[in-house]
Each structure stands twice: as structure tokens, then as C-alpha cells.
Amino acid sequence: MKILAFGATGFVGAHLVPHLRERGHEVTVVARSGKTRFSPEVPVVKADPVTPGPWQDLVGDHDAVVNLAGSPVMTRWNKAGKEGILQSRILSTRHIVDALARTTGKTLLCANAIGFYGDGGDSVCTEETPRGNGFLAEVCKAWQAEALHAQEFGHRVVIPRISVVLGHGGALAKMMTPFSLGLGGRIGNGRQWFSWIHIDDLTRVMSFLLETPAASGPFNACAPGPVTNARFTQALAQALGRRAILPVPAFALRLVLGEAAGMLLTGQRCHPEALKSLGFAFDYPDIDAALAHIVPAFKAARSA
Asked: Where does the NAD-dependent epimerase/dehydratase domain lie (predicted)?
């Protein structure tokens, strides 16, 4: 396929674009700066999907569109920051769908997040679970609604609801240093559920969804083995050969992140039922095996 990718300069895109190319697809990246770290064989178009423009004419020349665009959510939220989180997702998706309205028979893969379920408590969240409450749940609902409009023009829409992505980089990179020094620990009481996915499995999920005509609608992009925060903390410390002895109190996290602390103090116990129904098999379904694969790369980079 010929694939047009937005928001692909981040952690996920840096792995997804080479993976798609290895599978024989042609990928063009749209980036605000017009510069990327991809090989020269990957064409780059300078544009921002938040603003309509000539870039929209490219959509009709491609078989599929991948939309990963959106400003970071792990910041201290204020009114302007929350509006940026919402609008960066809504407007980019809206303008992509506007471009898709001029053509037919395409595939739109639009990212989303398991924040759709809000605080899931101990309940298992499948793709059939209703939307939860809270700011991120509202963002995910509105983001998904914009993407699904593409179905009105005859396009196939797939929406991976992405969990915490583990790999050499991304969220795990911020945890590695304190844990490697023996300064890591559970967050709050540690009983909140932690749904995760290895970056290699996530790239395979996305290519699988693009390449499977029967795939449509939302898919929980998470490993089939969610764990509690305390269990994840134990697994990471063990993989690093350290102890996890300094828990992060809930009140301290709220002082630093304010309302955004809720992302870490609550969780979702997600299962990838829709992916399993299509026969997708995970390479890293177990947290210990996933971390055993990731941590050596972190240690090698530190010692280099």
C-alpha cells in the first residue's frame, strides 16, 4: 500500500514507519518541521494537519492514512493545555476526513487511547465497554467520533485504543533512570490496573489492522496480560536487578501534575478481544518477557 502518515515523528511513529517499509509498503510522512530522522527513501511533506492546506490533496493519492497526531498529555493540565490536547486531535482528524471526503475506498487508521474507559477500576474493559468519565475519556470520545465520520464517505476506519507503550524510549525511558538507581516504586497504593503493550507488538498491531480488510472500528491495542501498578513496578525492578523501595505518594503526584495525576493513580484493565477475534498473536503477552527484551537495550545504551 501507499500510506500517508501524520504525527509519525514521535516514539511510536519512529518504529512504525520502518516496520511498514519492511513489509513492502510505501510511506510518506507529513511533519510540521519538514524534517525527520527517517532514511532518505521516506518522502517528507512539511505541513501541519491542524490547519487545512495543499497537503490534503495528497490523501487521494494514497491507499491508507495513519493519524498519530496529537499534543502530549503527560503535562500539568490547565485550561489552555487541555484545549491544546483536545484540539490537536480533533482538528487534525477533521481535516484528514475532509480530504477523504473527496475520494473513496481508502483506509483510515486513527490512533486513540484506553483513556476512553476512564477509571475502569477492577472491571475488564473490552471494545464493547461504554465510555468512562473524565477529561481524557471525553477527548477520546470526540477524537473517535471525528475519525468515524470517514465511514460516511465509504472508507474503512480502524481505531487502535493504545495502552502504555513499552520500549527503548517513550514512557519507559522516564522510569528507567530512577529504577536503575534503586529509587523507583509503586504509584499511590499500587492497586490500579496498568494495561501495556510492547512497541514491537504495537507496530505489528497497526500493520495487521491496515492489512486486514475485515478490521473495522475500535481495537484495544494492549497486551492480553494487564497487571497492577505494583506488579509492574516489581517486574521492572527485577528486570533491572534493583529494588523498588520508594513509592510515590498520591498527594505528591497531585502536587506535581494536578488533575493530570489521575492518569497515573487510576487505570484500566483492558483485554484485546477484537484483535484476538481476528487471530492476532502477541509476541510479548507477558510483562516479564517484555521487560526482559527491552531492558538490555537500555543498559547497553547507558554503557555506550
From this structure: 4-217
